[in-house]
Amino acid sequence: MNLQTFTYNGIFELESGNKLPGLQIGYTTYGTLNKDKDNVVWVCHALTANSDVFEWWKGLFGPEDHFNPDEYFIICANVLGSPYGTSNPLSVNPTTGQPYYLSFPEVTIRDIVKAHKLLADHLQIDDIEILLGGSLGGQQALEWSITEPDRIKNLILIATNAKHSPWGIAFNESQRLAIGADRTFYANFPDGGAKGLKAARSIALLSYRGYKTYAITQQEESDEVAKGFRAASYQNYQGQKLVNRFNAYSYWYLSKAMDSHNVGRGRHGVDKALSLIKARTLVIGIKSDVLFPVEEQQYLFRHIPKSAFAELDSFYGHDGFLIETEALTKVITSFFKTDVKGKIIELQKIA
């Protein structure tokens, strides 16, 4: 792992027209860029993840996994607004000398991609052999493949969509309502809104998993239990776990960034935008996903020119894209037919 920081000293103009006076991007790389620069695997991470993909996507990324540093130059950049090395609401505003907090400008998926394009230019990476991501990471990967169709050679989209749904936006707004109900959120302290963030995470978990997941993993072993339920304890534990490593301000802004996702904006509609993609594309859906239903991935498959579709049967719901790494490896392996050097030579259709 090689954690680095790229500093952009120019004015970074956002889609809204607002501007950031400079930008920092934290990113992690693994492996070595080969002479032909054709072994780049760029990972776009999800809502609360970080750039250390070996940490949160074990089983798919690692020394012994499909995407390993012996074969690939793997890079993952922390997204704009997230607190793991990239400019975010807790960063110092050079104009005031104080953290931005709620004066940080709202960002969109397109702004996040624009920042990553700056990093790719800085690293002199003209071609990305494989670009992939799940959930909000998939939204970024999709947007990037439309913005720069010639730069992206192969695209893997997992549990994501062409535009964020009213259902998904409603979940995010409910989480923001929980954060806003915590009055400390407006006090401008690094841990402001912590109780609200804990509640927001609890709400989010219901969309990440589902009825069957909780029925299997949180079921009581005795009919005599009348309080202290496993499911309640689980919600509290997971909520506090996020509070310990994240902050309410970044969560607030990144949920809004997710809501902004719509590849059809300013492009004569979603179908027209998807038709611009030149990359060979693998779209993967999860049968039990209630947040990004599999119909959304089927839509991508039908409208992206050179695409294949695969469906995973997992009881983990949306979180399956982080957990079902063995199944993902099999699907990805069957999608790419490779020669002895590991170079992709043919698109495989998957039933």
UniProtKB/TrEMBL annotation:
Enzymatic reactions: L-homoserine + acetyl-CoA = O-acetyl-L-homoserine + CoA
UniProt KW RNA-binding keyword: no
Pathway field: Amino-acid biosynthesis; L-methionine biosynthesis via de novo pathway; O-acetyl-L-homoserine from L-homoserine: step 1/1
Catalytic residue positions: 135, 289, 318
One Pfam family from the record: Abhydrolase_1
A single MF term (Gene Ontology): homoserine O-acetyltransferase activity
GO CC list: cytoplasm
The protein's enzyme class: transferase
Domain AB hydrolase-1, first and last residues per copy: 40-323
Keyword entries, A-Z: Acyltransferase, Amino-acid biosynthesis, Cytoplasm, Methionine biosynthesis, Transferase
One of the GO BP terms on file: methionine biosynthetic process
Localisation: Cytoplasm
EC code(s) of this entry: 2.3.1.31
Ligase recorded as keyword: no
Matching InterPro entries: AB_hydrolase_1 (IPR000073), AB_hydrolase_fold (IPR029058), HAT_MetX-like (IPR008220)
Binding site for substrate: 201, 319
Subunit details: Homodimer.
Family as reported in the entry's similarity comment: Belongs to the AB hydrolase superfamily. MetX family.
Known function: Transfers an acetyl group from acetyl-CoA to L-homoserine, forming acetyl-L-homoserine.
NCBIfam families: homoserO_Ac_trn (TIGR01392)
Protein name as annotated: Homoserine O-acetyltransferase
